[in-house]
Amino acid sequence: MNTYVEQIAAPDKPEELKNDILNNLYFIKGKSTGLATMNDWYIAVAYTVRNRMMKNWVELLQRLRDKDLKIVGYLSAEFLVGPHLGNALINLDMFTKIKEAVEQLGLDLNKLMEQEDEPGLGNGGLGRLAACFLDSLTTLKVPAIGFGIRYEFGIFEQEIHDGWQVEKTDKWLRYGNPWEIARPEISFNVKLGGHTESYVDDDKYRVKWVPAYEVKGVAYDTAIPGYKNGGVNLLRLWKSEAVESFDFNAFNKGDYYSAVDEKIFSETISKILYPNDEPERGKKLRLTQQYFFVSCSLQNVLKLQLLRGLAIKDLPNTMPLQLNDTHPSIAVAELMRLLVDEYFIDWDEAWNITKNTLGYTNHTLLPEALEKWSLPLFASVLPRHLEIIYEINNRFLNEVKIKYNGDDQLARRLSIIDEEGERYVRMAHLACIGSHAVNGVSALHTELLKRDVLRDFYELSPEKFFNVTNGVTPRRWIKLYNPKLAHLISRNIGERWITSLETDLIKLEKFADNKGFKEIWEQIKHQNKIELANIIKARTGIEVSPDSLFDVQVKRLHEYKRQHLNVLHIISLYNRIKKNPSVDIIPRTFIFGGKAAPGYFMAKLIIKLINAVGVIVNNDPDIEDRIKVVFFPDFNVKSSEHIYKAADLSEQISTAGKEASGTGNMKFSLNGALTIGTYDGANVEIFEAVGAENFFLFGLTADEVFTIKRNRYNPYEIYLGNAELKEVIDLIQSGVFSKGDNNLFRPIIDSLLGQDPYLVLQDFQAYIDCQQKVSDAYRNKDHWTKMSILNVARMGKFSSDRSIKEYCEKIWRIRPLQ
């Protein structure tokens, strides 16, 4: 080997890796083996692994300047990447060698991996999808850069005190982050507030934005390795800093606090993921965050375009940009501002560049999640962008009126500016108008977008609309997090499934009736359940039996996801046992997990209800451990490792027509859990893939939900007409689960009996009946195992590799590197 770079990139022996770990411990952490903490060892191992990516990382940065390279830019407010070490070891094919190296040092690799703090860069499915997509982009050799925010603090760490959610600061960066490299030389100024001034230059009308203040965005880069292909892609996150962090004039006058005001304000922008946007100040910060990372990213994209020797007008063909939901949709106005105000490109040409560069992925059917900002708030932060949006809107609506003979009602519905009551900027409308492609994330979701939420836009430009069903990466969610199952699959069908899930996983079908294979399958599931039971005991103090059916619902807490419907079923089982202690009920452990937004009172009350029911059920001697209720605190990517692989039953029970897709449903099924679910989101496609006989389907369809709501739904009549449901509701009202307090859970009861916006009571009986089918099926363990195997075998479609291939073909028009 001629250079150290070549040596470090070469295949390693455990002895060489051990020496590198010791060198990093000494030279980076400044510790001897006798003084090193577990975190010191983790950092030393992390740098050892990161160094193995460095040659490819540097080559990537050089290759990004290649004018013949087409690069995908993925803009997302979240990247829930999960812990880096395990994922890097799998993708770099280093797991066994590093394990041997650390064992030679007397260390346990699992404990070292546990030491890593989960990056607090996301909240749920949206951010995890973005992370899976980056993994797939690199594995498929598609050049890409993910752009987002380097949040200093994540959403929050969740603790449960007396059954209530308590939010604690998520200090994920407290011990540093060995996976990132700061790039202070890559920074961009971002303007905020102020006013605009018009002027004429060379007989052309121009506008100058005079900001009230500016902040600086500094790049932090993280390499995303592909699976055993030597490739890396880039996650570039922006940290906000003051342009000038210290005001000497204020300091010299003795005003010490004002001297650092700019620094404090600027750093607040990237301080925390999703500030509480209930108060006006929180809304303003959230809009500022979104604009901050979008502006930094687009300035970076345009600079890169010029560094590559490419014309700005060629941007659509050289770097397509994808907007991951409405959070980055301000990109439409910002790209226009940069092109028109900074690069002096004529409006029509700038609009053509913008529209053909941007693609928009919609992730929600909930009106409240389609972001909109009041005009006064928007103007106070982005005065120039409001002018640009008015111009975009005016030109667009003129075209609509010409095409549709002055249809004012249609124009009002399509307008970016909502004129109903207080005036708002509708960001989803901006994204639809300013993008060449709009896609949903499941077949049902896309159809509902076309039919309802974005119907007018679809009818106006049907050629813009696509469906790309979500997927998850099998590298993390099976090979890394369920290694025993992954090994069993590879031993029987080969390893190609890890990168060819669509074509190869189906080969498992032939083992569904193989007795020996099924016995090993059952053993792996049981071992995973034992592991989770031990963790539950350690974290909650609750003892659960691995022999019981693990019935799991882990996801963000929201009324439309209907965790409270699950609770009503638990109480119905409790009532049956109390009435007849000898009743034959399959033992179940109900496991919940997920965070409620800090300002979402009802979701936090549902968490309290889950825990309150658990206290009674878990300690009632009549129950005899036939029912256990667990709320697993602080559910995240790291803890999900133990949960998905141990589940017997996956609860996907959202109100039909409310869940865009879901990816937890895919992770559960790929790990052998059977699904009880509504015909909603990607459940529809999972149901079709695995077969009706291997899926527990219940409840209303999206069309039936629409019809019932249109016909003045009356939940109180259902309550009066269903004796078991009435007993369950009355028991909650009686104070049994609230130490005699009849008012504690009254908001939940009032919501269910009054409006029941998510049709919990309407679906109650169908859910109870379907749960009985689950119990009946679980009694025949041999057949249950067959169903489990067939579920996994038929889930090949739900790989993020397939999703990315579809984006490449339908939207980005990009081919992987050879």
Describe the structure.
Helices cover 50% and strands 15% of the residues. It is an alpha/beta fold and 818 residues long. The strands form five sheets. It has a nine-stranded mixed sheet, sandwiched between helices. It has a six-stranded parallel sheet with strand order 19-18-17-20-21-22, with helices on both faces. A three-stranded antiparallel sheet has the order 12-14-13. The model is unreliable at 1-9 (pLDDT under 50).
Question: End-to-end span in angstroms?
Answer: 26 Å
Oligomer: single chain
The count of strands amounts to 22
**Largest sheet report:** 9 strands, mixed
Shape: globular
Strand content: 5-15%
Mean pLDDT metric: 94
- Class based on secondary structure composition and strand pairing: alpha/beta
Low-pLDDT residue spans = 1-9
**How helix-rich are the residues, as a percent range?**
40-55%
Q: Treating each run of at least 4 consecutive H or I residues as one helix, how many helices?
A: 36
Strand order of the largest sheet: 5-8-9-2-1-10-11-15-16
Gyration radius, rounded: 27 Å
Topology:
Layout: H1 4-9, H2 14-27, H3 38-63, E1 72-75, H4 84-91, H5 95-104, H6 109-115, H7 125-139, E2 144-149, E3 157-161, E4 164-168, E5 180-192, E6 195-201, E7 204-210, E8 213-225, E9 232-242, H8 248-252, H9 256-259, H10 261-268, H11 280-307, H12 315-318, E10 321-324, H13 331-342, H14 347-357, E11 358-361, E12 372-374, H15 375-381, H16 383-403, H17 408-414, E13 417-418, E14 424-426, H18 427-433, E15 437-440, H19 443-453, H20 455-460, E16 465-467, H21 474-480, H22 483-493, H23 501-504, H24 515-540, E17 549-554, H25 563-579, E18 588-593, H26 601-618, E19 627-632, H27 637-643, E20 649-652, H28 664-670, E21 674-677, H29 683-690, E22 696-697, H30 702-710, H31 715-721, H32 723-734, H33 746-754, H34 760-779, H35 781-793, H36 800-812
Parallel strand pairs: 1-2, 1-10, 2-9, 10-11, 11-15, 15-16, 17-18, 17-20, 18-19, 20-21, 21-22
Antiparallel strand pairs: 3-4, 5-8, 6-7, 8-9, 12-14, 13-14
